[in-house]
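RECORD CONTENTS
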Amino acid sequence: MLEFNEWYREFWMRYLDDFVPGNIYDMHTHLWSEKGQRSLAPSALRLKVGISDLQRFSEQFYCGRKCHFLLLATPLKDMNPTAFNQWMAGEIAKDDRSIAAMIVTPAMTPEEVAGNFESGAFHGVKPYRVFAADPANARITEYIPEKLLEVVDHYHMAVTLHLSFPDGAANPDNQADLKYLTRRYPNITWILAHCARAFNANFMVDAIHVLKELPHIYYDTSAVNDLYSHYLLLKHEDRKRIMFGSDNIAAGGVPGKYITYADAWLHFPGMDKLEHCDSRAVPVVYEQLLQQKRVADMLEMNTSEIEDIFYRNAENLIAVLKKRLP
């Protein structure tokens, strides 16, 4: 488990404590268990995290804030989704104010997805591009086929969607798919992860004017460290559709920052012992929060609007999702 330290506390108190409200509903977190998983490739994402681990981590790294979550699987190629969803159902039962999204793959049957919804444990699904034949250039229905979307629509649930293609939401195929799917399945709530995967603001400059016209979509802010991406989203979108997310623990909790250049982005872990400055890194989620704070200042957002982003928008959506199951 990633360790909280005094430098993190000092940074938080200096830059973030006056910005982050006392309540947080984190709409993008990941759990992982090795239970039932076999022959998976090594990955830094295979960090064993149950809900109690996530709660302890969040209380420490958010310096005492009260936290609840949308729990997502850690989507790894060749994972056993049935075993994982069974384990996840047990985890979500430990916190009645949090919700969970089941992992879905193209190989799953509609009956399996429906059964998981009927169990009452899940209020959404988490597909991922790694389950497509070409993860880097996949249409949305290549990693969540319409036979499964029909089930999600029937139960009026949510899809947390990580877009594929190098240019994310700016890609014409993604825009065409979102236009079609949001209208074809009007009972689905679409949560576009990572500010619609705008790790680099270049992909949001024009796309935001397409996305803001689409029905039934929300965004989570997880792991986006580009200030202008947050600015574009908050300036042009309905702020009631934007929700805080962290990508904790294995991604949001690691030291460093997602930096951008040209049409690219990558994780930069920081550098040791620079002569001219304090070179110690803080967690990615702190870098994200700092950008959100700066944009809130630039746009002169009030306390109520900031609280909406951190928990009220999520709580309102969760209340609706929880009413949808029999």
